[in-house]
Amino acid sequence: MVAFQLLKARGMSSAAKVVFTGGPCGGKSTALSMVSRRLGLLGYRTYRVPEAATILINAGVSWGELDSRDKLMQAQIQLMKLQIQLEDGFVKMAEQMDEKAVVLCDRGLMDGRAFMDEELWEDMMHAMEMDSDELKDGRYDAVIHLVSAAIGAEEFYTTANNQARTEGIKQAADSDRAIRSAWTGAPNHIIIPNPSQAHGGFDRKIKLALSEVFTVLGMPGPRKRRYFILDSPQNFKPPADLKV
């Protein structure tokens, strides 16, 4: 993993680029907000690339009406072009600023592979003169996959908080697995499961995602704070692992 300070030395972009992906109702929006806020407090300028598919859906595109392979491929090509333009635009804007910057992407280019068959994907790669391995290996510093609530936290799965989300629980689980498969082999492909309520639940999941971003940037993870109520401060002996 490459810390920000080493990016320029290696001839890489001065702005780290991290993808947040996963199946529906995985916590992407919450994680993106939390990571953006925490990095801002630590002196990073953060840029959030919106999900291109949601932009198109909210603007009137209906994927269900694409009733032929040619229509679907043309739509996927336009989707990928829009996503590339958004990502590259934010990266260029970040690079203009003489400060530490992180570009946070709501989904990445390989997500599209999960929503079409292998033949159609390869035809699209050929038409766009692109290569799947290059998209996975050289475009992003990390890919953080937040597992859908449909896998391991079924009681919390909902479509109520996203107008563009219509998947039932089985479809959401299948989508999550397909997206995970599409990114398999990518460097720093990090899977964040759904911890049980006994192990912190959703809050724990978001903290794990934040910790992984810190690691990618070469930063120490979020610190744990412990508080003590002392009856007699002068006789207090802190635990061996506690720095006072």
Q: Main β-sheet, in a few words? A: 5 strands, parallel
Rg measurement, Å:
20 Å
Structural class: alpha/beta
Bin the helical content.
Answer: 40-55%
* Order of strands across the main sheet: 2-3-1-4-5
Coarse morphology: globular
- Terminal CA distance reads 30 Å
Order of helices and strands: HEHEHHEHHEHEH
How much of the residues is beta strand, in percent? 5-15%
Mean pLDDT: 87
Low-confidence stretches: 1-12
What is the count of β-strands? 5
Number of helices: 8
What is the compact description of this entry?
By secondary structure, the protein is an alpha/beta fold. 41% of the residues lie in helices and 11% in strands.
